[in-house]
């Protein structure tokens, strides 16, 4: 997993890398610019479009100057716009790249930019070096960039956005943010989505061991992290090895939730799935999912199951049932939906949850549980406190879902699409997570694999159906994610 460092740690990371690899800071900047160019080429923008590069006086501006040079060499019509006063001192690498701008690239002060231009604007004004509230002198520059009607691409961060804390001033509203080495924390906050546009991660060749000395609780999950966390089953494995799980889900009018979670558990490899549903509703689930068994007892011997998922479509009148279940099962379990709402209004039950269990609230359910947050950073901190206090794992569902673990680490998922914001998508996830726990995955690995596959399946469904995607489509794409990630 990619460690997400703070803006202040970036400089130290740079110097650690420069020292270890024996390259200069200027070479590292060149790598960043080349990495941007690789992405640019993959986008096949029309060469008829002129490119306007807005550059600041720091290294973010230095990236911009280097990019302008490389684009010009590649045959693009490029112009540079300086976002600093005449006579300002530039960072040494920015100055070097400014000096290297070829003669054929016009170089103007930013306020000479003609907003009626068509083309692509590259925002290399401010990056992780932005400190404190943005100065008034920067306001008109950001306003000018935002008034440009064409495509806007921010380098490393949309200018005006602080790397890892909430920003109050004006911020560039980019269509794309190409960020170097790792996504800066603030890029992953939902409130910053209008500024970041699509986030692109550009590798600059800093090897993972160099990150080890920098402490950070935040990580970014990538596709390559998934396969090694899956369990490998042998030729002689039988359905008992794949786990015997139970789902306590569904109620009159909400049997769809039980169906979706049971099917998802089966699709992710559960050997035996038993749904505990109201007896009166059994016909619905048994005809929809013949592979599922049903039981109707209120207090069965829960511990005969390897894993238990509670909550989808359960109904808010099941407080006593939830209490009995929490007392009756001693291994980590999954708690979702109505189970979380019941816990929020009956807080004395939180201490009954087996340690290391997983709660999967959406933002509304989370607010009921931990109170209102002022912003995403505040939310992350409150959830971390909750996880440490109760020794529970919490998944904050949404874009870049956050897996908050019992040891304080918080992992951001990288798969998914807005098309997954549809009824029942959470029920599918509960089924997947219960399935992995039942197959013997640790809660951490169940979460990492489950959340990633769920997001990937959503992406595949979204690519096919866009906003017509429904939870059943996500479910039916799970199999393809196994092929895509080469999970046996
Ligand atoms: N490993 C990596 O990730 C790599 C990172 N690289 C790149 O380096 C970038 C970081 O560069 P950096 O540290 O030079 O800072 P940067 O973002 O240019 O900002 C400095 C400028 O901001 C200004 N400024 C500050 N506060 C302000 C305020 N409140 N309001 C207004 N202005 C304010 C400050 O002005 P000053 O205070 O000096 O007057 C100065 O002009 C990083 O984002 C990435 O693009 C790559 O090149 C290589 C690999
Ligand atoms: K920028």
Provide key terms for this protein.
UDP-N-acetylmuramoyl-L-alanine:D-glutamate ligase; alpha/beta; 18 strands; Rossmann fold; 17 helices; eleven-stranded mixed sheet; seven-stranded parallel sheet
Question: Can you walk through the features of this model?
Answer:
(6S)-NADPHX binds at residues 59-63, 127-133, 156, 257, 313, 362, 427. Keywords: ATP-binding, Isomerase, Lyase, Metal-binding, Multifunctional enzyme, NAD, NADP, Nucleotide-binding, Potassium. Its cofactor is Mg(2+); K(+). This protein is an alpha/beta fold and 488 residues long. It has two domains: 2-214, Rossmann fold (3-Layer(aba) Sandwich), CATH 3.40.50.10260; 227-484, Ribokinase (UDP-N-acetylmuramoyl-L-alanine:D-glutamate ligase), CATH 3.40.1190.20. It has helices at residues 7-21, 25-42, 59-73, 92-99, 139-147, 193-196, 208-211, 255-267, 282-288, 319-328, 337-345, 363-370, 376-390, 425-438, 443-465, 471-476, 478-484; strands at residues 2-3, 51-55, 78-82, 107-109, 120-124, 151-155, 176-180, 198-202, 218-220, 244-248, 272-276, 293-295, 307-310, 334-335, 358-359, 393-396, 402-404, 410-412. It has an eleven-stranded mixed β-sheet with strand order 1-9-18-17-16-15-14-13-10-11-12, with helices on both faces. The radius of gyration is 25 Å and the shape is elongated. It binds ligand NPW and potassium ion. Potassium ion (K) binds at residues 60, 123-127, 154-157, 159.
